[in-house]
Amino acid sequence: DDDGDGDVSVVTKTKPKTAKPPLYKVLLLNDDYTPMEFVVLVLERFFGIGHSHAVEIMLTVHKKGVAVVGVFSHEIAETKVAQVMDFARRHQHPLQCTMEKEE
Length: 103
Ligand code: TYC
Prior knowledge:
Layout: E1 24-29, H1 36-47, H2 51-64, E2 66-72, H3 74-90, E3 96-101
Antiparallel strand pairs: 1-2, 1-3
Helix pairs in contact: 1-2
The chain binds L-tyrosinamide.
């Protein structure tokens, strides 16, 4: 306070912080049957990834077995997984998409 004695204190408050909600990685898994172009279409359609990057991610999954395709809130990640699994099922491809909590 400025109480007239010459020194002026400044009050700083720290806001009590609420914990941030956890994030979830959405993973695409390799298999031997899903066509490469179908995986690229999935990445473009459901994750908004541009064609060239989608091809790169697809090839990473093809070579390494799995790749993270995005990081989302629990609700958005669940929706992405459901959309991909439903789209793959409707086209009779065995493509698998899962989610896991980020560290
Ligand atoms: N391995 C598949 C093939 O050779 C291609 C593929 C890539 C499948 C990525 C799934 O998540 C995947 N046709």
